[in-house]
Specification:
single chain; alpha/beta; Rossmann fold; Arc Repressor Mutant, subunit A; 3-stranded antiparallel sheet; binds S-adenosylmethionine
């Protein structure tokens, strides 16, 4: 099926659409609030829930059912929502099309996807359309994981490799950074430009370019922030262009990681969301170490999940709604290819790089947090700082630095009534924003975190804890030496700045 042409919208049309979105509150937080959902993606089952719940959500809900979920509508259904514009206007502008068999029904040509306070136009993510070579994907899990990791701040120069409809570049631009988004797909760049105009954003440029050949468009000085979500799905044959990796195994991802690393300015950070192969035998550190060798960058790997080759093949052959029946022959073919590649497992996650000024770069593997929320980019900076700290201080000195929890840490305790009275049965720490790590731990760890006041060192606290519990100081210290690195990595404690 041929892709719809990208609409050419005059400035007054763009401003009428902006007014419409503002009037209906057609923004992400409002749609989530009226549907009672925490998040949604168009091709997963959460979308069905959202679609159903939007039925009672007034004109904003009616517009979303048509322009977000692609439901067919009659004039009566959305005329009120879009007035004073008319359905005929929208058909003329290429935002709606009439049903081919001439019924009095219309459907959206593109989706209007609310992302934060932006409304972005993408291709309709209906599975039958996705095989178009120039299909531009809407928001998926990867983009959602990365959206809060984009850096902010005046003066930040950002590069979005494979920008698609421009989501990450536009979010960065909205957060005061300027930048460049590149994509090999001309149609993606046309949509990204339209999205910039629609949202009144002018501090970002988009260019049609191959991310592996950027000299003509990229700033030779490099970038402070780079992100990429290259096509990363590993499969034996050519697949969906925007989604499936080209070349053998994960070599396209490795190349994207290297491009990102090379184009970073000193101190700059890159995030590449992707799949990588965990080789049979499991030595992922040396494999990823080879990828980043010679880049001069520290590497932090945040692994979201690992899947067996069979699970991975099934997941991608089934599709996001898990409704497509898996052809056993096709599944076998994928497994044979994975076997030939020496795949032990597939990992999904973010490979984060930071160009360092001097010294030996490190590589650190960590689990990704449970969720990634607002301000995660600040936490990523902290996480790099934590690994810096751990890699430059001998293990035995870790208790000599005062620590302090960040203000957005919560410690939850579940009490249970026993013969000895109420005691803490379960204790959990978690961050309420950013990299939202969560950890169930011994109640004593919760007590230790609470005692960290940025003044007393853990060594001093160990003496107090030992006295209180009648334990040996050495044992308490040994225990703390085991937990402090993890608490620093998870961001539950930070090294206190006593300057
Ligand atoms: C998985 S999509 C990510 C899109 C976008 N970053 C997002 O998060 O919505 C990958 C994008 O990379 C683009 N792409 C693929 N190969 C490329 C290349 N060699 N150079 C530049 N872009 C490329 C595709 O056209 C597609 O838009």
């Amino acid at each position: 099926m041929a892709s719809h042409p990208v609409p050419q919208l005059a400035p007054e049309v763009l401003s009428s659409l902006r007014e419409l979105f503002a009037r209906l509150d057609y923004y992400e937080s409002h749609l989530l609030q009226v549907t009672g959902l925490e998040s949604f993606f168009l091709v997963t089952r959460s979308a069905e829930q959202m679609f159903a719940r939007l039925a009672g959500a007034g004109p904003c809900g009616s517009l979303a059912r048509v322009m977000l979920f692609g439901s067919r509508a009659t004039e009566a259904e959305i005329a009120e929502a879009i007035a004073p514009m008319t359905m005929n206007d929208w058909v003329r502008w290429g935002l709606l099309e009439r049903h081919p068999d001439g019924k009095d029904e219309l459907r959206a040509t593109l989706v209007f996807y609310p992302v934060g306070d932006l409304v972005l136009l993408f291709d309709r993510p209906h599975l039958e359309d996705q095989t178009d070579v120039d299909h531009v994907m809407s928001l998926g899990g990867g983009t959602s994981s990365m959206r809060f990791l984009v850096p902010r701040g005046e003066g930040t120069r950002a590069l979005d490799l494979g920008t698609g409809g421009g989501t990450l570049a536009l979010l960065t631009a909205r957060a005061n950074a300027s930048g460049l988004g590149v994509d090999i797909n001309e149609r993606a760049i046309a949509l990204a430009n339209l999205n910039a105009a629609l949202n009144g954003i002018d501090n970002v440029t988009f260019a049609v370019a191959d991310m592996f050949d950027l000299d003509a468009v990229a700033d030779p000085e490099g970038y402070d922030a780079i992100y990429a979500q290259p096509p990363f799905v590993i499969r034996p044959d050519a697949g969906i262009v925007y989604r499936d990796a080209v070349g053998r195994g994960d070599e396209m991802v490795a190349a994207a990681v290297r491009v990102a690393g090379k184009r970073l300015r000193q101190g700059g950070m890159a995030v590449v969301f992707c799949n990588w192969i965990v080789p049979r035998g499991g030595d992922v550190a040396s494999r990823l170490g080879d990828w980043v060798e010679g880049l001069g960058c520290d590497t932090l790997v945040l692994e979201v999940k690992e899947e067996s080759p069979s699970e991975y093949a099934t997941r991608w052959l089934q599709g996001p709604t898990k409704r497509t029946a898996v052809d056993p022959e096709e599944h076998e073919k994928w497994l044979a290819y994975f076997d030939e590649l020496g795949v032990g497992a597939f990992a999904t996650g973010a490979i984060c790089l930071r160009r360092r000024a001097e010294g030996r770069p490190w590589l650190h593997l960590s689990e990704a947090p449970e969720r990634i929320g607002v301000d995660a980019s600040d936490d990523l900076v902290q996480l790099f700082a934590a690994v810096d700290f751990l890699s430059t201080h001998p293990h035995e000195t870790l208790l000599d630095h005062a620590l302090v929890p960040p203000p957005f840490l919560r410690i939850r305790q579940e009490l249970e009534r026993t013969d000895a009275g109420w005691t803490v049965a379960e204790s959990t720490s978690g961050l309420t924003r950013g990299l939202m790590f969560e950890l169930n731990h011994d109640p004593a760890v919760g007590d230790f975190i609470q005692a960290c006041d940025g003044e007393a060192t853990p060594a001093e606290l160990a003496t107090r804890i030992a006295e209180r519990h009648g334990e040996s100081v050495e044992r308490v210290k040994e225990h703390l030496l085991g937990v402090v690195p993890m608490l620093l990595i998870y961001g539950f404690l930070r090294v206190a700045d006593r300057g």
